[in-house]
Amino acid sequence: MDKYLFVLTRGLEDPTRVTRTFQLAKVAKEAGGEVHIFLTDDAVLLAKPGIAEHVKAPTGDGAGDYFPYLVENRVPIYV
Asked: Which end of the chain is more exposed for a tag (fewer CB within 10 A), N or C?
């Protein structure tokens, strides 16, 4: 089994990085990987309930498209 650690330091000021981090974590989990996410610096705000659902990338997708999957599949998110 592959292991992945995603470290996110960016928050609401960088919706693209936030969205891509959660998207790639979801892809890794769906592929059977062991996934962990570590939020630090500005990203800790994303741990607050409801915040990630409002982050949208310019491409139209958002963190809220991926974050619920990570929570439902018990991906550890460290703050």
From this structure: N
